[in-house]
Amino acid sequence: MSIIIDFVRRRPGNVLPNGDAVDLSTASSVRLLYSLFMGDIVVRSAAVDFTTKFGSVSMLSVLTGLPEAISDALISGKGKFQFFEQDEHLVMRRRGDCVEIRCSYAEGVMRVANEELVIAILQFSKQSVVDTVEQYPEILDNPNFLKLTFLR
């Protein structure tokens, strides 16, 4: 029942869809969430693959929204992560000691133990921030990035 949560960037993190470079030390939270660090999210288990193939998913949008959706599922029984770039989503429902995940863009149901899901999202979140800061150290000068990633 293990799960992999990861992200594949499709272009440099500091480049807008139109090809313009952005100073990451001053980028607005709107640009960080909706225009930069674009690619695809990997959500995969041994039985089901919910990896997107849009190429236009914002890593920071996933980094902020997916943990919230998982938390909602664990606390209230249901969580939803909406891909703002597409009319697609992931829906999570708690079923006892596991969470069932479905998506609007692929078939199947992924069942993940609560503990495994929590560990996977925490590892994804940590690794995403570490990789971003290592590749773009100037982003640590951006208070919007720090607020989005809870590094206040």
Mean of residue pLDDT values: 93
Sheet bearing the most strands, described? 4 strands, antiparallel
Spans with pLDDT under 50 lasting ≥5 residues? none
**Helix/strand order, N-terminal first:** EHEEHEEEEHH
What is the radius of gyration? Answer: 15 Å
Percent in helix: 25-40%
> How much of the polypeptide forms β-strand, as a percent range?
25-35%
Q: Could you give the topology of this structure?
A:
Layout: E1 3-9, H1 29-34, E2 38-45, E3 57-58, H2 59-76, E4 78-83, E5 88-95, E6 98-103, E7 110-113, H3 114-135, H4 143-148
Antiparallel strand pairs: 1-2, 2-3, 4-5, 5-6, 6-7
Helix pairs in contact: 2-3
Protein architecture, described:
34% of the residues lie in helices and 27% in strands. With 152 residues, the chain is an alpha+beta fold. A hairpin with a 4-residue loop joins strand 4 and strand 5 (88-95). A four-stranded antiparallel β-sheet has the order 4-5-6-7. It has a single domain, classed as Secreted effector protein pipB2 fold, CATH 3.30.2450. The protein has helices at residues 29-34, 59-76, 114-135, 143-148, and strands spanning 3-9, 38-45, 57-58, 78-83, 88-95, 98-103, 110-113. It has four helices and seven strands. The protein starts with a strand and ends with a helix.
What are its keywords?
single chain, 152 residues, alpha+beta, Secreted effector protein pipB2 fold, 4-stranded antiparallel beta sheet, 3-stranded antiparallel beta sheet, 4 helices
Outline:
The chain has 152 residues and is an alpha+beta fold. Helix content is 34%, strand content 27%.
